[in-house]
Design brief:
five-stranded parallel beta sheet; 16 helices; 12% strand; Rossmann fold
């Protein structure tokens, strides 16, 4: 499947490039002759550039992991893969057009190349998926899997494979040593082919493409090591089921550190490509907003000064990603000695948990009340976003003093970069109790996607205009 995608992706990119190239020539030279075309465009330089471009495409796509081994039960998305493929290829083409000063590759060419290559790549991948699914369901060229272990997780794993025939895996059977609950396997539809010491014989006499080990690591460490050596000697691939810990949130992935396989359990988003897009959006949007605000800053600064003499900006230390301390910026909305007055106002705190909120805070200036109500006081935080301390969307960064009072479970909200807006901001802000606020942040982290960010950003202006929960 991976090889098929590699071939069709290359065909899609080359077809898109050649078709657009020919269309552009026909538009510019409607009466061109074959000899003129050969003389003008089929040159050694152009052939070398084309080969160089094709090589750069292939290397770039492999570097970004588009052809890495997919998860056993993962259903690939042709739409997302085609988008990744064509974005990378278009970026490489853009670099080449500037590097080699290729005048024929215009902005019009670049945009249309991305669109056409995306459509072709998506079409080819859907065809590949369809062919792959049909052949697998008909048990053509299936991967024969032997499962080592007969516990509940092993049987559940086999049921999962059996329930998704399109992935092309077929369970040959199980092997395990006798134990108290091995009779559970008798109630299933899978055969017990022998004991652990029969593995060598089974591999020798049967068609087995892969072995899945579902044994308890702690009590079977030495035996697992021996089983791995047997499979290694036979050249049989081995997968180790990583669900041997009872984790409720974290998911696992395999990485390589200097050729050492590392099993990683992650409870935050690790989709690097999507996170790169998120960061790119942060930079572009924050930069544009800062440019738009620049003409109005002097006016706002004068108004703040006239309303209450003192600094224009208010800076405060906040806890960011994984408790990194950074300086958050706001337009000043309170009197100069507001922090000193906080202790005397503690009995009037209306917020639950470690946060401090008063609806009619006496420390607010006249202008400050309006700035808070409209959230204009938070506009300088786009500078924090541009710097990389914050994101447009993410859990709000707490004060360092508040973090010290957090319950253990709530600290996980700092496992993702803090933001200007999040689910809490569009759901009522200060009207929401602290524990519910924390639950909303966890919900955001556990279900994060670019689409979720987009939805939150779309709903934020309406929440600001309504002024609901602003304090």
């Amino acid at each position: 499947m991976i090889k098929a995608n590699m071939y069709t992706d290359c065909i899609a990119l080359i077809l898109a490039f050649l078709l657009l190239f020919m269309i552009q020539i026909l538009i510019n030279y409607p009466h061109i002759s074959l000899s003129f075309f050969y003389y003008k465009w089929i040159s050694l330089k152009n052939i070398m550039v084309a080969l160089f471009l094709f090589t750069a495409w292939t290397i770039s796509l492999k570097i970004f992991g588009l052809y890495s081994d997919p998860s056993l039960l993962k259903k690939n998305s042709a739409y997302i893969d085609a988008a990744k493929l064509t974005i990378i290829a278009t970026f490489v083409l853009l670099l080449f057009s500037n590097l080699f000063s290729i005048n024929s590759i215009t902005k019009f060419f670049i945009v249309n190349f991305w669109l056409l290559s995306f459509l072709l790549a998506y079409f080819f991948r859907k065809i590949n998926n369809l062919i792959f699914k049909i052949t697998r369901i008909k048990s053509v060229n299936t991967v024969q899997v032997l499962i080592i272990g007969t516990n509940d997780r092993a049987i559940a794993f086999a049921d999962k494979i059996n329930g998704t025939p399109e992935i092309g895996y077929s369970v040959v059977g199980f092997i395990d040593d006798p134990w108290a609950n091995i009779e559970k396997l008798d109630k299933s539809k899978y055969p017990l082919l022998g004991r652990l010491n029969h593995l060598e014989k089974l591999l020798k006499n049967n068609i087995i493409d892969e072995v899945i080990i579902c044994l308890p690591i702690k009590s079977y460490y030495e035996k697992i090591n021996k089983l791995l050596n047997i499979c290694e000697e036979q050249g049989v691939n081995v997968r180790l089921a990583a669900n041997f810990f009872d984790l409720k949130i974290a998911q696992s992935s395999i990485d390589l550190l200097d050729n050492i396989p590392i099993l990683t359990f992650h409870s935050t988003p690790i989709a690097l490509f999507k996170l790169l897009i998120k960061r790119a959006i942060d930079i572009i949007v924050s930069f544009i907003i800062i440019l738009v605000l620049l003409p109005f800053l002097p006016i706002l600064a004068i108004i703040i000064k006239l309303d209450d003499s003192g600094p224009i900006f208010f800076s405060q230390e906040r806890a960011g990603l994984n408790k990194r301390i950074f300086t958050l910026y706001k337009f000043r909305t309170m009197v100069v000695d507001a922090e000193k007055l906080k202790k005397s106002l503690a009995p009037q705190n209306e917020a639950s948990g470690p946060v401090f909120k008063i609806k009619d805070d006496p420390r607010l200036t006249r202008l400050g009340k309006w700035l808070r109500k409209t959230s204009i006081d938070e506009l300088p935080q786009f500078y924090n976003v541009l710097k990389g301390d914050m994101s447009l969307v993410g859990p709000r960064p707490p004060l360092v003093s508040e973090l010290e009072k957090y319950e253990w479970k709530n600290i996980r909200r700092l496992s993702m970069k803090p933001g200007i807006t999040c689910i809490w901001q569009i759901s009522g802000r200060s009207n929401i109790p602290f524990h519910k606020w924390m639950e909303m942040d966890m919900e955001y982290i556990d279900n994060w996607s670019l689409l979720l960010d987009f939805k939150i950003l779309l709903k934020t202006p309406a929440a600001i205009i309504s002024g609901s929960g602003a304090a």
